[in-house]
Amino acid sequence: MFEHRVSWLGRSALLGALLGxxxxxGAPQVAHAVYDDEEVGGYAVVIQQRxxxxxxxxxxxxxxxxMNAYYKGWAGTFRYTLHFGDFQGWEIxxxxxxxxVETGLREEIFRxxxxxxxxxxxxxxxxxxxxxxxxxxxxxxxxxxxxxxxSELFFNAGGGVAKYVSSWRPGVDYGVGxxxxxxxxxxxxxxxxxxVFINGIPFVTPNSGIDxxxxxxxxxxxNVGYQ
Amino acid sequence: MWAxxxxxxxxxxxxxxxxxxxxxGATSAMSALALEESDDRSHVVIQNRAFKMxxxxxxxxxxxxxxxxxxxxxxxxxxxxxxxxFQALELINVTYSYNWNTRLKDSLINEFGAMSDDYAFREAVxxxxxxxxxxxxxxxxxxxxxxIVRSEFYLNVGPAYMLYLPSSIMFSGMSHxxxxxxxxxxxxxxxxxxxxxxxxxxxIVVSVDGLAQDPPLFxxxxxxYLGLGGSFNLGYD
Lengths: 227, 237
Known about the structure:
Strand content of chain A: over 45%
Distance between the termini of chain B: 22 Å
Number of helices of chain B: 3
Number of helices of chain A: 4
CATH topology of the largest domain in chain B: Porin
Helix content of chain A: 10-25%
Order of helices and strands of chain B: HHEEEHEEEEEE
Strand order of the largest sheet of chain A: 1-2-3-4-5-6-7-8
Structural class of chain A: mainly beta
Shape of chain A: elongated
Number of domains of chain B: 2
Number of strands of chain A: 8
CATH class of chain A: Mainly Beta
CATH architecture of chain A: Beta Barrel
CATH class of the largest domain in chain B: Mainly Beta
Oligomer: heterodimer
């Protein structure tokens, strides 16, 4: 995980500090100086252990699917993710159910005596997916300079199948997310994903089409089996 | 929060250790070291920020993906005045959107006789907004435990204005639509003077001039904006 590099000079420094500590008390301003490295910047190696580690993650999210012109989806999502490292995970299953609300576009275009094609008006209802998760960034943030919050940035890519009202469609997806750890066993997460589902084989199947779906979600995750 | 292994840092660490050996209170120094690993997260931050924003000039490209009749690719110029670590004002924020028709719009025009200059086909071309920015989070992000990047999370809210135009310059008729917007973003600092930022915003504007149409048309338009850009920071200390 985090590297622990201590040079001989670093060990000497630590020993000196221990000796000094054995001899004296007080002077917290010295302690502050230890951390006053922000102004210098530069290359750094992380030497802290991660405060929060994920193992078996069960997530529940509320979501909105705003992209379709004829309806907007209000969705609920369940996900199970197996985290097999600090940097990688596998979202083994993601299940989304979308309750769709018509936008009024159908009525609007009817004034031109137009009707949407059945494939266009076909609404997504259920979405099943599986994703590889890459978690490159782990952050320690200061909230108003008074509270430390741990966070994680992650990316996902994978595939799935969607059940529309009158068809099943395979597709792929990718996305990005942000997690804020509350406690070891619970975190709040935000997801943005882009799904691309196909209705038939493009250029081969008549009336085949591609459906782009944007997915915005906010929810909570329960972490089980962490050490 | 984080430690480094650069040679000059070693020197700094050695100096600090020497001072700790000589000055009363080294035990407090050690307790501060322990503080990093502590479970108590209600700390007072004792580091100065490495990157402070002052006058920020942003160039951003983005997308308007939501409308049924067009999709837009945008360019944004933004000036933000950061008057504290936690707050800022976006004093200038102008976005131009280059739009193209969706298949639905083309179909309505070509197959169903819809007029290209129909009021419903007006497209957002200019977006201007004035925003208050709250920046509650600042911190360090470790990428693959190798590289540390300073980052900032922020929220914005404010009034907005959109200029809607017909899709072709052959047609006249502007539509002025006031409203509001809110959003969130993340900034990754590359240097004191440059940072990358990602923005997500939701604009809600109303077509008040649609009431003059025949028949009267009052629309609330939801516009989603996704942006990615770079910011130049001037005048920082």
